[in-house]
Design a protein that fits this description.
single chain; alpha/beta; 5-stranded mixed β-sheet; 3-stranded antiparallel β-sheet
Length: 750
């Protein structure tokens, strides 16, 4: 209700929740200027701060029990009200589904002042009600999304246990009972209302949410399956002969997820390898006729063999992904896997030759005159791994040039995201990395990105730093760097930039993999495609990119986020939790923050998306792979879609975005040092629940009010300048002008 939302806003204004948190939640979910959103709660208070519907009654019973006992809560729970929380909104504030629950009975406090029954961060515990020994009773929720915690007070041990059981049932039902999550509860009435009540009917007649990644449509948009123009025909009057695409769709081999259970149903591979199955002209192989692909998949971890995720319609530059090979200490080999990777390089080489023949090879294609000079390439590389990136430069680990360039020919670039020491250590478990002596025409480099354990540790450190009231402000930058989180962001962005460089300038197919091929192997190719393809920098394209490289290609959201699972409920292996997708969104934020004019969406879009990674309010980010979502859980039929919700929230689109200019610009390959040196802490996200003010607030001024690049906070009714929402400033303009100057100078020297 409106009264409930007003009460929550007044409560928020009295807490130490940061201003950016208040703005993001109150405006997006029922604040001034917003309308009723679809997405789960039909306009109730749960749109603001949600909890499973069934568990609300348990908490309300706790409140009613305490009131019957004569232990009423102070009217100061909500400033300006004469009673506690409004009916239907009792004690649901600040409680998200992605929290660990632990019962806290007998917790003492040194504070004697009146304080809210719901506390966030460093706020004190309420002094009433108390146990016979004088200690307050209640439940503490420890959040997964930034180190925050929330307290619930109870009148007795019995009430605390009841509330604890309610949380355990509905907030943490476990992997086998995900139907109790809010994502399913919120649409249960609609699903049950559409259920055919006739005898024998089992499927609900509910329209599923729209699927953003439709494989054949997306690969058709990329143009990777279209025939290519090629060599001029003699005596043809300038006509050119066309030949089939170097890549072909694998339509049937994994249709029932029998080839690889964590891959999408439709895959793309090198034409010469895919057509080995049946020789059909359409490039589609049947599952029963795919022994070669099965042997290729058997040599890779989890059967995740190399498959295309993005390709150029003009030349052979493309992005591929896979898992690590099963090399082991004995140096095992697979002739099928070696031939398969060689086929990728061969097909790309043919596509490049055809592009040279028609002189349409893109920025890096055609003859030597169409390729930027080495001076310009060295400038944008910034001396980072330039012996590998720029053909013709001597140095250890250099590729020596792509497709007939100076030095040994390189037809396929293998990018292993792990530190080399970790890749070598995996040999003891029967895995490892490719020996380029066995894989003809390929080179390999290691990029040193940490595993899920390193990511989790760094995230806990940065979250603890941002939420701690005792963090030193004088050494803030040093402390942030000391967490290791910004360094990880730079490593991921650097690897993605280098992958895009190889594809765009060197026209090489790049194969990206880590261990199992679903964490770092989802992050880096997705970011590389953001740099390469302007379509993915739109709101529609970004949702397609996430559904393709994270959802369909099997990033294990449930395993990494622990949806519906509390502490120690993952079979004793809590070490599988890691904020991989949040780290990816942080990397996207760095690009949006530095180059806002190239993106249709802004930082607030990413902020709200990051909020719903753990909320379990939508079904989009549930389950571990496409098969689980489409076949087992029927996610699109039973839950709401986070993309539809984000598209319905006003103010998330970037008003300075120029789609035509961005499309004409093509690839976004800024100087790499410029990208890495401007990586900053995403304060709107990590300091959201911090005890100290971080985002600058602009005081009222006469005349020009509110000032430019500010937003109005619905709680404070004062303009708040979000530093991440500023337009390209003068420093960025000067840097871009310097790039043009260096480019002009390099071309003149050439």
């Amino acid at each position: 209700s409106d009264g409930g939302n007003d009460a929550v806003r007044r409560w928020l204004s009295s807490q130490n929740a940061s201003v950016q948190f208040q703005y993001a939640h109150c405006l997006a979910d029922g604040g001034p200027g917003s309308s009723n959103r679809r997405g789960g709660s039909g306009g109730s208070g749960h749109q603001v701060l949600q909890m499973p519907l069934a568990s609300v009654s348990g908490v309300e019973k706790t409140l009613a029990s305490s009131q019957r006992a004569g232990q009423h809560y102070d009217a100061s729970l909500l400033p300006g009200t004469s009673s506690g929380l409004p009916s239907g909104l009792n004690y649901t504030a600040m409680s998200q589904l992605g929290s660990h629950v632990s019962k806290a009975i007998g917790v003492t406090t040194s504070s004697s002042s009146s304080s809210p029954a719901l506390s966030n961060g460093a706020a004190s515990h309420p002094s009433r009600p108390t146990a016979p020994g004088g200690s307050p009773l209640g439940i503490i929720l420890h959040g997964k999304d930034g180190g925050r915690w929330v307290k619930f007070s109870a009148a007795s041990d019995t009430d605390a246990r009841r509330a604890h059981e309610a949380f355990g049932t509905y907030a943490f039902p476990g992997r086998r009972n995900l139907g109790y999550l809010f994502a399913f509860e919120s649409r249960r009435a609609e699903v049950m209302g559409g259920q055919d009540k006739t005898e024998g009917a089992a499927q609900p007649d509910v329209k599923p949410t729209r699927r953003r990644f439709v494989p054949l449509d997306e690969y058709g948009r990329q143009g990777v399956l279209e025939p290519r123009g090629g060599t001029p025909v003699e005596g043809g009057g300038g006509a050119t002969a066309s030949y089939p695409s170097p890549w072909a769709a694998v339509v049937h081999a994994n249709a029932s997820y029998g080839l690889c259970s964590t891959y999408p149903s439709v895959l793309v591979g090198p034409r010469s390898a895919v057509l080995r199955n049946n020789g059909a002209g359409d490039g589609a192989g049947g599952e029963e006729d795919a022994p070669f692909l099965r042997r290729v998949a058997a040599f890779r971890s989890e059967n995740r063999f190399a498959t295309l995720t993005w390709g150029s319609r003009e030349h052979g530059g493309s992005v591929w992904r896979s898992a690590q090979p099963k090399v082991g200490l004995q140096g095992n080999r697979s002739s099928e896997d070696e031939r398969y990777l060689y086929a990728i390089g061969e097909e790309a080489k043919r596509a490049n030759l055809a592009a040279d023949a028609r002189d349409e090879g893109g920025v890096g294609g055609g003859g030597p005159g169409r390729r930027p000079p080495p001076e310009f390439l060295r400038m944008i590389c910034g001396r980072i791994n330039e012996s590998d990136l720029i053909p013709g430069l001597d140095g250890p680990g250099g590729s020596g040039g792509p497709n007939g360039g100076a030095g040994p020919a390189c037809m396929l670039k293998i990018m292993d995201m792990r530190p080399k020491s970790a890749a070598m250590g995996n040999k003891t478990q029967g895995y490892g990395y490719e020996n380029t002596n066995n894989y003809r025409g390929s080179t390999i480099n290691f990029y040193g990105i940490g595993n899920i354990h390193a990511v989790r540790d760094a995230y806990q450190r940065v979250s603890g730093l941002c939420t701690s009231p005792g963090s030193s402000d004088l050494q803030w930058t040093q402390l942030v760097e000391g967490t290791g989180w910004p360094g990880m962001i730079r490593l991921i962005l650097s690897a993605a930039w280098q992958a895009a460089f190889h594809v765009h300038y060197n026209r090489l197919p790049v194969l990206v993999h880590c261990s199992h091929g679903w964490d770092r192997t989802s992050q880096v190719p997705a970011l590389a495609q953001l740099l390469l393809d302007p379509h993915y920098r739109t709101i529609e394209g970004f949702s397609t990119l996430v559904e393709k490289d994270f959802l369909s290609f099997g990033h294990p959201f449930h395993t990494r986020c622990g949806h519906g699972e509390g502490r120690n409920e993952q079979g004793g292996d809590e070490g599988q939790l890691a904020p991989i997708f949040l780290q990816f969104v942080d990397c996207v934020f760095q690009l949006v923050n530095q180059f806002p004019d190239y993106f249709e969406f802004g930082p607030r879009y990413l902020l709200l998306l990051s909020e719903h990674i753990y909320s379990c309010r939508f079904g989009t980010l549930l389950c571990d792979c496409e098969r689980e979502r489409e076949v087992v859980a029927a996610i699109r039929q039973r839950t709401y879609c986070v993309w539809e919700y984000l598209e319905s929230v006003p103010g998330l689109a970037n008003p300075t975005y120029d789609g035509k200019a961005s499309g004409e610009a093509g690839a976004l390959l800024m100087p790499l040092p410029m990208l890495l040196r401007n990586v900053t802490l995403w304060t709107d996200r990590y300091c959201m629940y911090g005890a100290k003010a971080t985002v600058p607030c602009v005081p009222p001024t006469s005349g020009r009010y509110p000032p430019r690049n500010t937003v109005t906070c619905p709680v404070m009714e004062q303009p708040v300048a979000l530093h991440t929402m500023r337009q390209a400033d003068d420093r960025l303009r000067r840097a871009l002008d310097d790039v043009d100057m260096w480019k002009t100078a390099a071309l003149r020297k050439k």
